[in-house]
Write the structure tokens for this entry.
Amino acid sequence: MSHESDINQAERRQHPRHAPEGRIHVMRVLPNIPLSDAEVVDTSLGGLALRTRVALQPGDRLSFYLWTQAPPILGEVLAREEQEDGWFLVHCRCLVGGFGTT
């Protein structure tokens, strides 16, 4: 599968996208490293998109910590797309938990 088709696959979402509600802290699971520059672009019930300078790889596991007291959400990187400004747009799916919508 090509990188472009990885992105196209990541764009086929089952759930509508929403702006994030509050700050979401992102941490890479192995190695356990906070992604302090991560900016969540949008969320859906099944996943999210974020921007970061870290070149995450498909299959990388991430933890998402919400501003609420809920347990973290475990996610997996599906695809990444390098942006002109040197950042990466990263598409993730939720493995455990999810982003509820109101």
Observations:
- The CA atoms of residues 1 and 51 lie 23 Å apart.
- The longest strand covers residues 73-82.
- Residues 3-11 form the longest helix (9 residues).
- Residues 1-10 have pLDDT under 50 and may be disordered.
